[in-house]
Amino acid sequence: MIGGTRYLGRAIVQDLVQHGYEVTALHRGKTLGTLPDRVERLQGDARDRKTLETVLREGRYDLVVDTILNAADLEWCLPMMARYAGQLVHCGSTGVYASADRLPTREDDPTPCSLGFEGKRDQDHALLLFHRKTGFRACSLRVSNVIGPGDVPLDIWGARNVAYFQRLADHKEIWVPNDGRALVQPVHVRDLAWGFRAAAEHQAAAGQIYNLSSERAVTLDAYARMAGELLGSRSEFRHVPIEAILATGKADEGGVRFVCEHMCIDSSKAHKDLGYAPKMDVRESLRETLEWMTEGGQLRP
Question: Is this model's pTM higher than 0.85 or not?
Answer without folding.
Answer: yes
